[in-house]
Automatic annotation (TrEMBL):
<dbReference type="InterPro" id="IPR036922">
    <property type="entry name" value="Rieske_2Fe-2S_sf"/>
</dbReference>
<keyword id="KW-0001">2Fe-2S</keyword>
<keyword id="KW-0411">Iron-sulfur</keyword>
<feature type="signal peptide">
    <location>
        <begin position="1"/>
        <end position="23"/>
    </location>
</feature>
<dbReference type="GO" id="GO:0046872">
    <property type="term" value="F:metal ion binding"/>
</dbReference>
<keyword id="KW-0479">Metal-binding</keyword>
<dbReference type="InterPro" id="IPR017941">
    <property type="entry name" value="Rieske_2Fe-2S"/>
</dbReference>
<keyword id="KW-0408">Iron</keyword>
<feature type="domain" description="Rieske">
    <location>
        <begin position="67"/>
        <end position="146"/>
    </location>
</feature>
<protein>
    <submittedName>
        <fullName>Cytochrome b6-f complex iron-sulfur subunit</fullName>
    </submittedName>
</protein>
<keyword id="KW-0732">Signal</keyword>
<dbReference type="GO" id="GO:0051537">
    <property type="term" value="F:2 iron, 2 sulfur cluster binding"/>
</dbReference>
<dbReference type="Pfam" id="PF00355">
    <property type="entry name" value="Rieske"/>
</dbReference>
Length: 147
């Protein structure tokens, strides 16, 4: 390869690498634009569960993707579940547990400072001063979605 061809190839390679790098950077970072709904006009779900294997019994709960979802009743209907933000309103720790005996959501050590919330998200015990954000639960057969 002649020197001129070599320099030309290097220039083209660098141009492609820079273009790819800029494109990658434009998709990352702290983008505050809202999520794009999926085709067909649906909503972006925070969580999807299979009720054939998840949350089978009252008191069962799951913490995932910023959500705590609790089965509070029987049957596969939306009314049998509550979905809340799992981010404690005190200092932003993820809540640790749903205590089925006390029926309270617990924000425990090492991060939490002992706040307790009811299954509706209301503050039961501080130091948290504000409720957990409630989300919408939909059930279709064995498919549960939180949005
Ligand atoms: S972060 Fe939950 S009690 Fe402090």
């Amino acid at each position: 390869m002649e020197r001129r061809d070599f320099v030309s190839n290097i220039g083209l390679t660098l141009a492609l690498a820079c273009t790819a790098g800029l494109a990658a950077c434009s998709k990352g970072g702290n983008d505050n634009t809202p999520p794009v709904p999926p085709p067909g006009g649906g909503t972006t779900n925070k969580l999807t569960l299979n009720l054939g294997s998840d949350l089978l019994n009252p008191g069962d709960f799951k913490i995932s993707n910023g959500v705590i979802i609790i089965r509070t009743g029987t049957g596969n209907t939306a009314a049998a579940f509550t979905a809340l933000s799992s981010t404690c309103t005190h200092q932003g720790c993820t809540v640790a547990n749903y205590n089925n005996a006390s029926k309270l959501i617990e924000c425990n050590a090492p991060c939490g400072h002992g706040s307790r919330f009811t299954a509706t998200g209301a503050v039961n015990t501080g130091p948290a001063g504000n409720p957990l954000t409630a989300y919408t639960v939909k059930v279709d057969g064995n498919s549960l979605t939180v949005s």
